[in-house]
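Hey, can you fold this one?
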Amino acid sequence: MKLRIRGNSLRLRLVQSEVTRFAETGLVEDAVVFRGGHSLRYSLHVSDIPALAAEFVGPEIRVLVPRQQALSWTSSDAVSLVGEDVSEAGTLKLLIEKDFACLNPQAVWQEDQTDNFPNPLTSCSKH
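Sure. Predicted structure:
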């Protein structure tokens, strides 16, 4: 799972096996480890909440997805889940996406793309 933080927005991108695991268990998690053994964990959870939300608990970013929304997303061709978590601290934009294979593999920095979703722009339909 990839994590992108930019300003007041979070973006998670999941490969095929992670979407499958999320559908089966309701949880996908990962971490980045820093010098000194410190790590920042980030996770995606199915939850009984009404809308997409995120929380920062200890050294972990948790993104919460409503159960029905998670089921619909994981069992369809839908590419993304988009929402805003509005709180007293402000508005945090959330984007969760299925990770497609890059169209220019030479541009990918040391990344195995064998588990990425096929990029829909690589196929063309005949009319």
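The chain has one domain: 2-101. Let me know if you want another pass with a different chain boundary.
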